[in-house]
Amino acid sequence: xxxxxxxxxxxxxxxxxxxxxxxxxxxxxxxxxxxxxxxxxxxxxxxxxxxxxxxxxxxxxxxxxxxxxxxxxxxxxxxxxxxxxxxxxxxxxxxxxxxxxxxxxxxxxxxxxxxxxxxxxxxxxxxxxxxxxxxxxxxxxxxxxxxxxxxxxxxxxxxxxxxxxxxxxxxxxxxxxxxxxxxxxxxxxxxxxxxxxxxxxxxxxxxxxxxxxxxxxxxxxxxxxxxxxxxxxxxxxxxxxxxxxxxxxxxxxxxxxxxxxxxxxxxxxxxxxxxxxxxxxxxxxxxxxxxxxxxxxxxxxxxxxxxxxxxxxxxxxxxxxxxxxxxxxxxxxxxxxxxxxxxxxxxxxxxxxxxxxxxxxxxxxxxxxxxxxxxxxxxxxxxxxxxxxxxxxxxxxxxxxxxxxxxxxxxxxxxxxxxxxxxxxxxxxxxxxxxxxxxxxxxxxxxxxxxxxxxxxxxxxxx
Length: 463
Ligand SMILES: Cc1cc2nc3c(=O)[nH]c(=O)nc-3n(C[C@H](O)[C@H](O)[C@H](O)COP(=O)(O)OP(=O)(O)OC[C@H]3O[C@@H](n4cnc5c(N)ncnc54)[C@H](O)[C@@H]3O)c2cc1C
Fold this sequence. Notes:
The chain is α/β, with parallel strands linked by helices. The protein has three domains: 6-142, Fumarate Reductase Iron-sulfur Protein, Chain B, domain 2; 158-251 and 398-462, FAD/NAD(P)-binding domain (3-Layer(bba) Sandwich); 266-393, 3-Layer(bba) Sandwich (FAD/NAD(P)-binding domain), CATH 3.50.50.60. The protein is 34% helix and 17% strand. It has helices at residues 19-23, 28-33, 42-49, 63-66, 74-82, 86-96, 100-106, 113-116, 129-142, 166-177, 194-197, 209-218, 231-240, 269-277, 295-306, 327-335, 401-405, 443-462, and strands spanning 6-7, 10-11, 158-162, 181-185, 222-224, 243-246, 266-268, 287-291, 311-315, 339-341, 344-352, 354-368, 374-378, 384-387, 390-393, 412-413, 416-417, 431-433. The strands form five sheets. A five-stranded parallel beta sheet has the order 5-4-3-6-18, sandwiched between helices. Strands 7-15-8-9-10 form a five-stranded parallel beta sheet. The longest helix has 20 residues, at 443-462. Flavin-adenine dinucleotide is lined by residues 106-107, 162-168, 185-188, 193-195, 198-199, 203, 228-229, 247-249, 273, 296, 299, 400, 403, 435-436, 440-444, 446.
């Protein structure tokens, strides 16, 4: 094994791939699955762990812990790695986050723990917390050690968890750990929710979802996959269970509603990514336009580059200042060659059978709207045509309105379930809720909400 050079006492970062190079690999599948944050070697992990100042204490938690929605004790797990105890590190991570292996790969660490690292204020790069977490989790899981806590005695109470994405998996895990008989139900044939179907393959293809799921099995969680909860099943669950945790996430893609949206080559982001994740790579041609300015838009643009498109342009109706995507996502997309057309909105898709051009309007920013962002207004007479082979709309997801409508007495606001943030309790005492269905946007936030709801259910049923 060879060590990275040491520069003026500050060790350089463990190697990361050159983004332009990996996103333009000749084999699209290789480009699609080349990890943005590949695993680090034992030696790199050891040396990186030594950079951590192990700050904080019982009365002043370290900034990285405060920045982690799952409250993982970062200094403790890094301390364990630095003394050669990666399994102990994994145990520390899993005690706070049953999806620690997934979060190590998919968390926006630059915005969370690494963004809060005190080394940033000393003009050094932050500790590579995500990759150290990955190192510890991979070590344990590769050794075949699932680190399942002891199975508690059954407390006589039953909970159904609807949705086996990150929020439902976490809720089910925490409830099983407390002695509840838990049934985890999902329409899909496998656990993981959007992690399995939508998170970019260069962050996580599948692993370690299977190990994280196996930990639930080991704790005695019963799985009912390939099962959609409808009104009838809901009644059965209501009769059989002491509580129901709703962890149903959000539904299909929203659409721009542009005329011509049914032309071939006009795609919605979620089915596009799901096809890629199942290794069935779509063909996008040379010129791709992505509509939207969120993290999903950045993902589908970067995936289009990997599929071999020569010109990938993100059309966003506001400007960079208002764009909701994380700064790091934008910067990495630029590095990979994605272009941005600011203050540009699609009006209509044109084509004969297949889309060939987008009629766009230039926009200008007006007064702030109710969300506090400046309204984007079309500039009269500014229409122009952009030639394209494929359009991918990535303008958000719609709520699961039909399903939520069958649940008696739960309050919904703007399509999101309203809960007590301290307990996850809805306005119907039998139901608790967690995850994107309440308005979350990351896996680790769904994990946090799953934990809150499990503790809320426990407090309610222990009264
Ligand atoms: C394209 C995309 C990329 C993303 N990338 C990242 C990323 O890199 N990092 C990150 O942290 N986050 C990312 N996210 C966000 C993250 O995936 C979500 O915040 C997280 O998955 C939410 O978890 P959840 O459990 O609330 O919902 P979901 O993951 O959506 O899971 C909900 C589950 O409920 C099931 N379900 C729904 N209704 C029913 C029913 N009636 N009966 C049975 N089952 C039902 C669904 O089948 C689904 O499996 C991304 C999201 C998208 C869309």
